[in-house]
Amino acid sequence: MKGERLNLFAALLCSLPFWISNPAFSAVGGADYLESGAGARWAGMGGAARAAARDTTAGYWNPAGLAAQGPAEWQFGSMLAMAPLGRRLSWLSAGLQTDRLGSWSAGWMHNSIDGLETVDGAGTMGPDGASAEDAFFLSHGGSLLYQVKWGVTAKLLSQRMLGFSGMGGAVDAGILLQPFLDHELFAAFTAENIFGSFSWNTGTIDRLPRAFAGGISARILRDLVMVSADAVFREGVAQAELHGGCEYWVFEQMAVRAGMDGVRPAAGATYLFAPYQADYAFVYDGKGLGSRHLVSFSLIF
Fold it and tell me: Which helix (H) or strand (E) holds 13?
């Protein structure tokens, strides 16, 4: 039964290229909101989460992390981010870990912007517009060996902006390695938007840009400190995107962290009152779209 279900899931994923790909792409791009991140904890770490995320947000960062969640059977997570210019980002996810069928998670990301200025063909200012973007994630993770985890995420995408709208889909895959069983040291490799396209109501079809990433995460100093780093190589971007962070558990219920999301410094904290966990992060951006405050709540049991 386990093999049949896994084969069915693999067959569904393998069929995605046939309905989300098209040889007549208009351009490479779109769905930039997918780079927003998931989880305030990982935002405070500068987005260095591909080897570190082993909760329901792993469906976003690296689905292989779902297979390394630990003893928890159920997990629920949520996130709300507020930023200037009327921007809001939210995340909601649930995960289930089983002995026979591996680990599964489902997630929803919503990104919206209000107060967009509109101009008609004559240059006259029109009423303010808005943008709404959604992504639905279905992820599965399993073990090739105890020290080698794998995972796949299927994404369904939707976007509406100033009279334009579109839908699309994409597939991510990841591997998580733990070289030494007696050390919490992990290495990660991910491929994002392996297959992916986005169809607009104008008739154009864009191919989503691919991205490949590697990451490493380790616990040191009697497991009180976690350090993590990622390097992301995005299609069409000349330089690698670098992320790094450090987390310190002050005592059993509280942690503080700091990181760099590219050139943007970040910081945050966690309060753990099992089975509940609350996370806060602040990401400073003085030159881009403005700084962000993020809050996450999780339930793990």
Answer: helix 2-20
Angle formed at CA 30 by CA 160 and CA 237, multiple of 5 degrees: 155
Reported as a single tens digit per residue, the pLDDT across 162-179 is: 778 899 999 999 999 999
Whether the Cβ atoms of residue 118 and residue 125 lie closer than 8 Å to each other:
yes
Q: Which residues contact 24 (CB under 8 A, 6 or more apart)?
A: 205
pLDDT in tens, 4-41: 444 444 544 454 444 444 445 556 666 788 888 999 99
Q: Which residues contact 237 (CB under 8 A, 6 or more apart)?
A: none
| 3-state per-residue secondary structure call for 41-73 | HHHHCCCCCCCCCCCCCHHHHCHHHHHHCCCCC
For residues 151 and 141, the answer to whether their CB atoms sit within 8 Å is: yes
State which CATH number among 2.60.40.1120, 2.60.40.10, 2.60.120.10, 2.40.160.60 fits the domain covering 2-300: 2.40.160.60
Mean pLDDT of 274-287: 90
pLDDT-derived band of residue 116, with 50, 70 and 90 as boundaries? low
Number of CB atoms found within 10 A of residue 186's CB? 25
| Segments making up each domain of the chain, as ranges | 2-300
Tokens representing 262 are 């590219």
CA distance 43 to 132: 22
Would you say 105 and 131 are in contact if contact means Cβ atoms under 8 Å apart?
A: no
pTM for the model stands at: 0.86
Report the alpha-carbon distance of residue 117 to residue 107 in Å, rounded: 31
